Amino acid sequence: xxxxxxxxxxxxxxxxxxxxxxxxxxxxxxxxxxxxxxxxxxxxxxxxxxxxxxxxxxxxxxxxxxxxxxxxxxxxxxxxxxxxxxxxxxxxxxxxxxxxxxxxxxxxxxxxxxxxxxxxxxxxxxxxxxxxxxxxxxxxxxxxxxxxxxxxxxxxxxxxxxxxxxxxxxxxxxxxxxxxxxxxxxxxxxxxxxxxxxxxxxxxxxxxxxxxxxxxxxxxxxxxxxxxxxxxxxxxxxxxxxxxxxxxxxxxxxxxxxxxxxxxxxxxxxxxxxxxxxxxxxxxxxxxxxxxxxxxxxxxxx
Length: 302
Known about the structure:
The chain is mainly alpha-helical. Helices cover 73% and strands 0% of the residues. It has a single domain, classed as MetI-like (MetI-like fold), CATH 1.10.3720. Helix 1 packs across helix 11 (265-299) and helix 5 (120-134) crosses helix 6 (141-165).
């Protein structure tokens, strides 16, 4: 018994040591993160004002703002969501509920999982060759939205499948037992129960897309733009215009990159202020994801 007790004590010691090392690593990473966030907030918050949010970029740091950047970000994210969310959820639902389990399906699933971890610059190069050169969409909001849509599409597919897979099998079996069809089971049971997880994955994917810079620079996003895209709504007939979708654009990460690359300290402060705004948007999206997940968990009764 003594050798066994010695082995048990040794394993317990290793477990405690590993837990301590992991805790220290986590604390160090959080400390570094808090220092960086604190530095950005400390430098950027005093610069935030209504004029900063409503002014165009300028060669004078005190007059520069992020109006064109945050408007461009909203338009690009709108196109991204419109392209990626329906397709990603539909693809995840098909692969998990309808697709036959064969070698082709397995190959597709492996490739989708691999695409979720591909560096974003690869999607930018793909979009440059496909959307800009082959399809002649130019350096437009549509090109940027489609590029980011490709970037987050594998993430949405994977999270959708995981949310659907988490639904207990007995719910499906009970529905089939009372005569429900496959579509009725999916529509009335699988989708309602998995909505919280699906929406959480969608919001997290969009919060990643809003901070991407490399693919948008690759497809030709402007680093300095002092005008807004064409308004989607006008006072004249036909009252709705889609010209904005083909207009040039910039986004907040690229505007920050432009300011950081300048030598003047005032522009660095502007970049920090823009970083605070972007950080607030990202944290808000993640907070919404957490709220949605908890809300749907409370509503679900297994």
